[in-house]
Amino acid sequence: LSDTNIFEITTGTASSSSGYTVAISNLTLLDTSDSIEGTYMCNGENGITNFIGAVNEVDGRFLIEASPMVRAPQPEETGLLGEQITLTFIVVHAAPLVVPEDIIWMFTPPSGGE
């Protein structure tokens, strides 16, 4: 991980509840986007051969979520009485994706006495 515009890695030490000194490393995403979603591995080594099978690496996963944004390419349509008119709305920037079964339409009649 070398792109310092996207990631920041900080390290330090702390005392565990049992009194041992432990190393801590934090990976911070500075600007989330779906291009950095995935699995990241942290590996710790101290130069000692691992004969006992101790875990020296662990995977972590970043899941990027975003609430949906609805766009209307043409938000208003005009037609003559008796014609078929279609309004199109596009759901974008949703993570996880919005499935068609989760799109809901509602109707509000115009107010006033037109």
SSE ordering: EEEEEE
What topology, given as strand order, has the largest sheet? 1-2
Q: Supply Rg.
A: 26 Å
**How many strands, which pairing sense, and closed or not: the largest β-sheet?**
2 strands, antiparallel
What amount of the residues lies in strands? 25-35%
Please state the average pLDDT score: 79
Could you say which structural class the secondary elements and strand pairing correspond to?
mainly beta
Name the shape in a single word.
rod-shaped
Characteristic key phrases:
114 residues, mainly beta, two-stranded antiparallel sheet, 6 strands
Quick take:
The protein has 114 residues and is mostly beta strands. It has strands at residues 7-15, 21-29, 38-43, 57-62, 69-71, 90-92.
Q: What does the secondary structure layout of this molecule look like, with pairings?
A:
Blueprint: E1 7-15, E2 21-29, E3 38-43, E4 57-62, E5 69-71, E6 90-92
Antiparallel strand pairs: 1-2, 3-4, 5-6
Describe the structure.
This protein is mostly beta strands and 114 residues long. 0% of the residues lie in helices and 32% in strands. It contains no helices and 6 strands. It has strands at residues 7-15, 21-29, 38-43, 57-62, 69-71, 90-92. It has a two-stranded antiparallel sheet with strand order 1-2. A two-stranded antiparallel ribbon has the order 3-4. β1 (7-15) and β2 form a beta hairpin. It starts with 6 loop residues before the first strand and ends in a 22-residue tail after the last strand. 0% of the residues are buried. The mean pLDDT is 79.
